[in-house]
Amino acid sequence: MASPSIKAATSSDEASVIDAIVLAFSTDPFARWIWPDPHEYLTHFAAFTRGYGEKAFTHESAYYVDGYLGAALWLPPDVHPNEDPVMVLLQDTVDADKQEDLFGLLERMDSCVPEDPYRYLPFIGVDSMHQGKGLGSALLERGLLRCDHDKTPAFLESTNPANISLYERHGFEILDAFQIGSSPLVSVMKREPR
């Protein structure tokens, strides 16, 4: 089998890359806990993805598999998500009975962020029709090359326990794992550069 073709995304690829992530996360426990209704999920998850990851496009750290079968958005050191619009989105669209657990979970996730510079991977995903073909590994390796080149740690929060083994195969270690109230389990992971 040929190696997957991983491409650097530009601003002209943004809509297709966001669509790839929305499709890939359609069965993610955290994403679907927030928006269990399919219409609500499809209506709001793209804005959530943009808020957390759109700066990857301007910093040349967004990647996709040829054909938009999967994508990864990395944020370089000292570049942070657009949290204010994301918080407003969550306050406006998430059921009131989940908000205390959700914001408690997000606060706990924030408390785990490393103090030293790091590359942050807010999103990586592959269309479920194309999983198990090495596409996620190829996307991950592309971003980790920059981490290793720059001698910068990589940091992520895994919201799907099924993905932990992928991250561990690539050198990530779990720093903490937790859930708040009715939330799904979140694992905070870090990888030192090689």
What can you tell me about this protein's structure?
- The chain has helices spanning 14-24, 29-34, 38-53, 55-58, 83-93, 96-111, 135-150, 164-169; strands at 6-8, 62-65, 70-75, 119-126, 154-158, 173-178, 186-191.
- By secondary structure, it is α+β, with helices and mostly antiparallel strands.
- A 7-stranded mixed β-sheet has the order 1-2-3-4-5-7-6, with helices on both faces.
- The longest helix has 16 residues, at 38-53.
How would you describe this structure in keywords?
single chain, 7-stranded mixed beta sheet, 8 helices, globular
Sum this structure up briefly.
This protein has 194 residues and is of the alpha+beta class.
Q: What is the radius of gyration? A: 16 Å
Poorly predicted parts:
none
Helix fraction by DSSP (H/I, runs of at least 4): 40-55%
Number of helices, where a helix is a run of at least 4 consecutive DSSP H or I residues: 8
Query: What order do the strands of the largest sheet run in, or round the barrel if closed?
Result: 1-2-3-4-5-7-6
Mean pLDDT: 95
Sheet/helix structural class: alpha+beta
Assign an overall shape: globular
Biggest sheet overview: 7 strands, mixed
